[in-house]
């Protein structure tokens, strides 16, 4: 025999999964009463936790421009002399 408290999660999971759908239905009705059209926002597709995200390998060849995320080297001023003289 199973206790009633152990069965509660079985009924809560489907209800919690339906909350976003119910929210969009409710928002559509509210917008319709205001005379506007509700457009459901686009969501990102779920990422698989088991596969790494598809990224390009960093195969930089000399002569290529650095990738956008790489820091740019700071050019040295031409007329500046960094040596100290006593």
UniProtKB/TrEMBL annotation:
It comes from the Eukaryota. Residues 39-86 are annotated as: Disordered. PANTHER family: TRANSMEMBRANE PROTEIN (PTHR37756). This is Uncharacterized protein.
């Amino acid at each position: 025999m199973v206790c009633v408290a152990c069965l509660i999660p079985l009924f809560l999971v489907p209800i919690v999964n339906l909350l976003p759908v119910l929210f969009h239905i409710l928002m559509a009705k509210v917008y319709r009463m205001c005379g506007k059209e509700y457009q459901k926002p686009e969501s990102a597709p779920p990422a698989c936790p088991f596969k790494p995200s598809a990224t390009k390998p960093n195969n930089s060849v000399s002569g290529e421009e650095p990738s956008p995320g790489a820091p740019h080297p700071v050019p040295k001023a031409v007329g500046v002399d960094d040596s100290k003289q006593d």
